[in-house]
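User: Can you predict the 3D structure for this chain?
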Amino acid sequence: MRKIEMPGLTWGASKLVPVGFGIKKLQVNLVVEDELVSIDDLQAQIESDEDHVQSTDVAAMQKL
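Assistant: Here is the predicted structure, written as structure tokens:
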């Protein structure tokens, strides 16, 4: 996932968060420049790795 590189995309910290029944989700912080990176396109690229990614979700977003 961090191999994805785009102008305006900066990867931050990540951690495994327990969901339940021994299942964990990967929570990743990142910064995007709205005019350079489409969140929909980024999610599609991440989800294209079907062997490792089941789904994506935007937990929080702030525009400056």
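Helices lie at 39-47. The mean pLDDT is 91.
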